[in-house]
Amino acid sequence: MGDFYDQLETRSADQRAADLFGRLPAQIAHAKARAPFFARLLADIDPDGVTGPAQLAKLPVTRKSDLTDHQTAQPPFGGLTATLPSDLYRVFASPGPIYDPEGKGKDWWRIARALYAAGFRQGDLLHNCFSYHFTPGGVMFETAAHALGCPVFPAGIGNTELQARAVADLKPAGYSGTPSFLKTILEKAEEMGWDHSSLTKACVSGEALLPPLRGALKDLGVDVLQAYATADLGLIAYETKAMAGLVVDEGVIVEIVRPGTGDPVPDGEVGEVLVTSFNPDYPVIRFATGDLSAVLAGQSPCGRTNIRLKGWMGRADQTTKIKGMFVHPRQVADVVGRHPGIIRARLVVEKEADADVMTLHVEADGAGDGQAIADTIQSVCKLKGRVQFHPPGALPNDGKVIEDKRA
Amino acid sequence: MGDFYDQLETRSADQRAADLFGRLPAQIAHAKARAPFFARLLADIDPDGVTGPAQLAKLPVTRKSDLTDHQTAQPPFGGLTATLPSDLYRVFASPGPIYDPEGKGKDWWRIARALYAAGFRQGDLLHNCFSYHFTPGGVMFETAAHALGCPVFPAGIGNTELQARAVADLKPAGYSGTPSFLKTILEKAEEMGWDHSSLTKACVSGEALLPPLRGALKDLGVDVLQAYATADLGLIAYETKAMAGLVVDEGVIVEIVRPGTGDPVPDGEVGEVLVTSFNPDYPVIRFATGDLSAVLAGQSPCGRTNIRLKGWMGRADQTTKIKGMFVHPRQVADVVGRHPGIIRARLVVEKEADADVMTLHVEADGAGDGQAIADTIQSVCKLKGRVQFHPPGALPNDGKVIEDKRA
After folding, report:
1. What is the CA radius of gyration of chain B?
2. Per-residue pLDDT averaged across A152-176, rounded?
3. Does any CB of chain B come closer than 8 Å to the CB of residue A90?
4. What are the pLDDT digits (tens) for B271-308?
5. Inter-chain touch A93–B157, beta carbons under 8 Å
6. Residues of B in contact with A154 (CB under 8 A)
């Protein structure tokens, strides 16, 4: 192995698309055959017809925010899994609670690719500070390390002084966990005068890594790269030594869609991360993560050819209470969908004399019929709303469909 | 599979002895060749000569209480491991800290046999409440469950209400962890009105299981059996449905010795548990656990033929401070060794008019030379001691070599 985990990372975009969309019909058929939820959701879908991004974009979305309801209705996994509970390897409970399945097989969460990109190689001891209890974080990185032939110290969370002592005694080559806890451990080691010089690389996740924190860790001797993963999907994207965005994992199809919808946005525009997984046990199709990101233009300087994400840019769920009524992003999308002249829209909520006021800002070519749009708002949201027109490209590119300015 | 995990459990004592002592010379040779600590410790031992219990009993003992010193002198494992750190699977840190290695391979800790005896079968979901962080408890029971084909919920410690909720939602077949935490979880489930009826079996460890606790768990619907395991050795012995002592694991040789020595006591007498392991990665020879137990006479009614232990009967390390000086069990053994007429001895420490007074109570056939023994005490312990004679069998059978009556 050299710079790359495998040859999948450097194939052409055409090869990748041919591979993934070539396998997609069978995966959709598998989901329909084995997972009752997808059998219902995709009842009218012919898997053989889903052969490219345009056809995929027409399939219904499954929202992470609805998982708890699905699981309550049909415990424990809402009918989304294709493997019997008795044939799974582990079961997890994330806050909610949302129950997450893990199937059998090496590196089931596909994190090894991210660890490899962060510099981990066979024999490197990994000091793993994700929790192993209830949530799958610890196991995700441990199974990845084992796939690379790396031994693991399952350190978990807490016990800062004991963590620093273990670093000094066991001399791990690298760390996984949140970046802020790594800083806490290294500073404790410095305070105690304990050696931490063995620890020179880290693969972090679970919180934002801002430049000052990355710089502080660099000053403490550690090169830190990020992995973007969730308890439903495993790896979605990962940072490489180029540190120029997060390269999408080879095992998933990522779309960026208008929040609250399943409609892909143009490349570069901020939207919700939607993932279709090829996992045989948990075959989620168009799973809306609730995270905002955007596709970066061009190719990573590291040589990996897959599309890149800008990283985590906030939460997509912008459901807001206005005059005592919930307004959902999908209602905004509904209004927009009924007026073909609208390019993009953003609902802004403000306080005027202690009353909630909402205005739909729309990008449109030329003038539109404001009264017709206002009528649609009233009809869809059961609330009055103003309409204000803007030229194309005038609204900010931040993924916001509803902006709450009342606070 | 039926009542037994494998055919090893029901072989004759002769077959078992022939198997274990047949493999012992190669294991000792392996330890000497690959583990520097054992190369030094057993430098003068010819492995081919160790073909039975009598020869094994002449080998030097390695005390758990000395592990921290060995590991500090030669980090991280004191030279006791036969596998390179980079080729291990996991590394743990138990309080001390003592670092524990885990090698590669299915059910490395050999706990599956105990889970099987407790009733676990393929497909049963295990709710595992041992910690996965730092210490190997969680992994021990998880890898055992996986060896049986059981999925695992890695619940860890704490979060009582979430634990009870997970039991209600995931419907585990059984539990592993401490028995007192199981009671806490089940009582919380009762309090919340949550169903815990799926959970009917448990394999517990880590603390004493007294009859009232076992009865309370039975009343809550759970049959609880114990496993005796340590972070150095994995499984040593396990309870079966007969609930008549703990059957020794098939992968170890257990001896019960006079505390502070390596001298086997007669069957039935309480002494320190000494284990010789056939583990290829951590080939400990005559490892003194620091735990007290005794061999139970006869065979388990469940049909398993290996010797049985009475369970945990206290700590063997009775080192005591007398008049400001430490007195070790091995010093008592040293005194006894110099006087062949002594069958058994017990040093009793008392307060008389605010001063420490120590008396060596000795079992002897006929009269002995009290003054000669007192002189030996003075010479070995640098302290004066009285001597009192008793007929054979008069001293209590509780493994105590030093009894401190001052408190």
Report:
1. 23
2. 96
3. yes
4. 999 999 999 999 999 999 999 999 999 999 999 999 99
5. no
6. 90, 92, 132-134, 138-139
CATH of domain A7-309: 3.40.50.12780
CATH pick for A320-404 out of 3.30.530.20, 3.20.20.70, 3.30.300.20, 3.30.300.30: 3.30.300.30
CA A362/CA A376 separation, integer angstroms: 13
Q: Residue A404 pairs with which residues in a beta bridge? A: A349
First and final C-alpha spacing in chain B? 53
- Measured on CA atoms in the order A326, A330, A334, A337, is the torsion positive or negative? positive
Q: What is the DSSP string of A267-279?
A: TTS-EEEEEEE--
Domain boundary assignment for chain B: 105-231, 320-404
What's the rounded Cα separation, in Å, for the pair A53 and A44? 18
Is residue A101 within 8 A of residue A282, CB to CB? The reply is: yes
Tell me which residue of B132, B287, B21, B90 sits closest to A152, measured CA to CA.
B90
A274: β partners: A255, A288
CB B36 within 8 A of CB B79: yes
Inter-chain CB proximity A87 and B162 less than 8 Å? no
Q: What local confidence, expressed as pLDDT, does residue B1 receive? A: 47
Q: Two tokens at A399? A: 């993924």
Q: Which of A92, A151, A155 sits opposite B134 (nearest CB)?
A: A155
Q: Which of B340, B342, B316, B325 is nearest to B380 (CA)?
A: B325
pLDDT in tens, A270-310: 999 999 999 999 999 999 999 999 999 999 999 999 999 99
Q: Which two tokens stand for residue B138?
A: 């969680």
Which residues neighbour B373 within 8 Å (Cβ) at sequence distance 6 or greater?
B335, B339, B342, B360, B362, B387
Interface membership of B67 toward A (CB under 8 Å) = no
- DSSP classification of residue A315: B
Write the ipTM.
0.89
Measured at the CA of B267, the angle between CA B262 and CA B269, to 5 degrees, comes to 75
| Amino acid at the residue A216 | A
Four-residue CA torsion sign, A375, A376, A377, A383:
positive
Reading phi first (left if > 0) and then psi (alpha if -120 to 50, else beta), residue B270 is in beta
Among chain B residues, CA nearest to A74: B169
Whether residues B85 and A125 touch (CB distance < 8 A) is answered with yes
Nearest residue to A252 via CA among A110, A77, A63 = A110
Contact list, B146 vs chain A (CB under 8 Å)? 89
Q: Quote the pLDDT of residue B288.
A: 96
For the domain made up of B105-231, give the CATH fold: Rossmann fold (3.40.50)
Q: What are phi and psi of A192, to 5 degrees?
A: -85, -10
The kind and range of the H/E element at B373 are helix B370-381
Q: Is B82 left (phi over 0), alpha (psi -120 to 50) or beta?
A: alpha
Q: Is the peptide bond before A76 cis (omega within 30 degrees of 0)?
A: yes
Q: Using CA of residue B246, residue B252, residue B258, residue B264, what is the dihedral sign?
A: positive
B290 and B65 Cβ atoms separated by less than 8 Å: yes
User: Is A156 in contact with B133 (Cβ distance < 8 A)?
Assistant: yes
Question: Do A320-404 and A7-309 fall under one CATH topology?
Answer: no
User: Cα separation of B231 and B234, whole Å?
Assistant: 6
Distance between CA atoms of residues B213 and A80, nearest Å: 40
- Compute the distance between CA of residue A221 and CA of residue A199 in angstroms, rounded to an integer: 7
Q: Is A96 at the interface with chain B, CB within 8 A?
A: no
Q: Which of residues 142-161 of A touch B (CB under 8 A)?
A: 142, 146, 151-159
Contact call for residues A115 and B50 (beta carbons, < 8 A) = no
Using left for φ > 0, alpha for ψ between -120 and 50, and beta otherwise, residue A158 falls in left
